[in-house]
Please model this.
Amino acid sequence: MNTNKRLVAIKIVHSIIWLFFNVVIFYLLYAVVVNKIDRWVWLGLGCFLAEGIVLLLFKNFCPLTVMARRYSSSTKANFDIYLPGWLAKYNKLIYTGILIVIIIILIYRLV
Model:
């Protein structure tokens, strides 16, 4: 497989994983807002905990970003994923903020 095809494959996989985490985070937000705290909430939080551990291990980079660096010298924030540049750049900040809101609401619901 040539370099361009490898980068495209990484971008597709990265985008699918990003989409999965969007479904998870918006389910979590829905669940805590409507007070539907079930096993899926805990499983979703576990997914984000696992993602956080992976990011810590890779010095705040997704392993797919590290892999994509081998095939691109681009400095764009979205060189490794099919997202608009601004969203790729602020992705962690946006979703961390949403996750903090979810956790605050979850604590409120549990107390």
